[in-house]
Amino acid sequence: MIPQLLSASLVRALVPALLLVALAAPASAQSDGCVQPKPVCEARDAVFAVSAFDPIGSAVRIGERQLVTSRHVVADEVVVTLFTAEGRPLMAQVVPTDYPGDLILLESGDLPPGPALTPEAIEPEAELFTVGADVGLRRIRAYDPGRLRFAPRADLPLARLHHDAYSQPGNSGGALVDQDGRLVGIVASGGEGRFEAIPAEAIATLAARSGPEHADASAEIGAAVRVCATLLDTYRNPGQRLEEQQAKAVETACRRSGNRQFMDLAGQTLGRSGLTEPAIRLFEQGLAEDPDAINTRLSLAITYHLARDFEAALPQLQWLMTHADDDLQVLRLSIQAGTWAGDDELAARALARLKEVNPQSAPAAERFVNDPPPRPPKRQ
Fold it and tell me: For the segment 228-247, what is each residue's pLDDT rounded down to a tens digit?
């Protein structure tokens, strides 16, 4: 992930003004500088920059007056600001919903004439492109392509579409399209080359669960998003230790947000503070929703290491060894856990891969395998 140089609260205070300055100036024509396939470049005309609780996000037009974006961009706001390609600000109303995933609808009668994208099912072999707001370039951008890693599991309604098409901050709520410009997902989260999108097919479920009758439930979820994000920012210092009530507040708010990325971040925050049990609960809930979430599994494996429960880490690491593309942290954790928990095959497999992808660190790892130090006791 990109290092945070400013706290989220400070960014939220500064960015709206900067965003207005950046986007209010005439933007380059949407066709300028787009090197992606023509249908992908044309899809940019259906994507808008949005400023709400998260000061920089994206929204996708799916109808004459209707757009969809990420719930975490909006939180509990009821009105958001959209920006046209020319930088003109427009107001949009947030449509209440009790949908438990990271999606929400917007409505605006001020949208200019233009195309809308239709949600489609993904094709496994498709090239995938993120289309979202790039504040630095002052326009909606189509980023370099990637491919599907895991299709969303049909039996798990909150499972996500996992891919490696590049995206960056500001793209949340933007479009994930294929080479034909078909909308297959809404950009959600990611990092370290592993990105996630809400399947576009979930928009139909969102629409069915949206409307004024859901105002109370929507406000509750939105408030949890706001509180969770604020607490994560407050306790972002790696050396900070949380008291019991602080930890309980983080776990409760982030769980109620329904946002798996927030639950992951909450688990990492708790784990760094030595509170591994609630951290593990959050990661396990995330994996119950989406077993293919690589970053969630890696966070869970790290937390088991913090708890010195190396046997519990083994199933996570065995899965990650197959699906995490020779991630160096996975290899090192596998060598350590495999050695101390008696899975010699896992340790040997990880060491062999480490020799291939990072040979300079292999001698120290091999000495660890051949002559391991005493295993530390499990934390109570």
Answer: 999 999 998 888 899 999 99
Q: Verify that 59 and 198 share a domain, yes or no.
A: yes
CATH number for the domain spanning 53: value is 2.40.10.120
Q: What is the mean pLDDT of residues 133-159?
A: 94
Separation CA 247–CA 228 (nearest Å): 11
Alpha-carbon distance of 268 to 272, in angstroms, equals 6
List the Cα angle 98/287/231 in 5-degree steps: 60
Of 282, 289, 267, 107, which is closest to residue 198 (Cα–Cα)? 289
User: Does residue 3 sit in helix, strand or coil?
Assistant: coil
**Angstrom distance (rounded) from CA 372 to CA 321:** 21
Judgement on whether residues 165 and 314 belong to the same structural domain of the protein: no
Enclosing domain of residue 364: 249-370
**Residues present in the chain in total:** 380
Cβ 110 vs Cβ 90: under 8 Å: yes
pLDDT of 32 reads 67
Domain count, the chain: 2
Task: Give tens-digit pLDDT for 190-210.
Answer: 878 899 999 999 999 999 999
Is pTM beyond 0.85? Reply is yes
Contacts of 100 (CB under 8 A, 6+ apart): 158, 221, 258
CA distances from 182 to 119, 120, 303 (A): 7, 6, 39
Token look-up 């001698």 returns 363
Quick count: other Cβ atoms within 10 Å of Cβ 71? 28
Distance (Å, rounded) from C-alpha 89 to C-alpha 15?
Answer: 15
Pair of tokens at residue 30: 């949407």
Both 23 and 164 in a single domain?
Answer: yes
Residue type present at position 239: G
**Nearest 5 degrees, angle CA 364-CA 366-CA 294?**
90
With cut-offs at 50, 70 and 90, classify the pLDDT of residue 2.
very low
Residue 92: name the closest of 107, 77, 103, 105 by CA. 107
3-state SS, residue 66: strand
